[in-house]
Amino acid sequence: MGNTGTVLRELRGAQKTAKGVSLYSRYVNRPAGRVFAACAHRFGMTPNQVTAASAVFTFAAIASVALVRPSSGLAVAVYAGLVIGFALDSADGQLARLTGRGGPDGEWLDHVVDCAKLILVHTAVLISFHRFSAPPGEGWLLLPLGFLFTAVLTFCAGLLREQLGRAAARPGAETGAAPVSRLRALALLPADYGVFCLVFLLLGDPTAFRVGYAALAAVHALFLVAFLTKWFGELRALRTAE
């Protein structure tokens, strides 16, 4: 299987493009995922097993939000679980590209886990608000529902943009390698799941958590509008180019 250092070097050469990726994913999550992928390769794990490990860490953290009374200790544990799960989510794809063992089943499983975590994390926040934090008004209970709607619509619309774009592309058309914009990568930080995980470090202070969570919800709603406008324009351009 080769030593871990050799595998890490091979993984660095088998990365997805950095275009459209925030600074967090590029410089934190993907490198962490490389380490997990190298370790998984050394222990003979398959990409689907890494996906399952990602789900265990992620869903355990999410369940804790819903079932355990908020505290500073819980905040750190939840953040750690979410971040490790996110890094493993990167590792499964890296391992698949390294070993050539990826396939439609693995991609499907990865997307199912991603969709489930987006639904469940905001559902868990809603349950936590109701059970533990006694928000100042019942309207606060609508906030996680709105955030859930925004997150799932962004996720589904992005997948559709990718699939429909591939289907509409002319055979043999050159996609080109557009330069990676560091400014764009910086601008995408607030929409990155890894940055979203940071808000759970505030879980021990109900007021601070509500404010931080609400601020991120507003930012994600603005990004949704921007993404939908951009993706619609790109698909429309593909149609007129036919």
From TrEMBL:
Keyword terms: Membrane, Transferase, Transmembrane, Transmembrane helix
Transmembrane portions of the chain: 74-91, 139-160, 185-204, 210-229
Entries under InterPro entries matching the protein: CDP-OH_P_trans, CDP-OH_PTrfase_TM_dom, CDP_ALCOHOL_P_TRANSF_CS
Keyword Transmembrane recorded: yes
Keyword Ribonucleoprotein: no
Family (UniProt): Belongs to the CDP-alcohol phosphatidyltransferase class-I family.
Name by which UniProt lists this protein: CDP-alcohol phosphatidyltransferase family protein
Taxonomic placement: Bacteria, Bacillati, Actinomycetota, Actinomycetes, Kitasatosporales
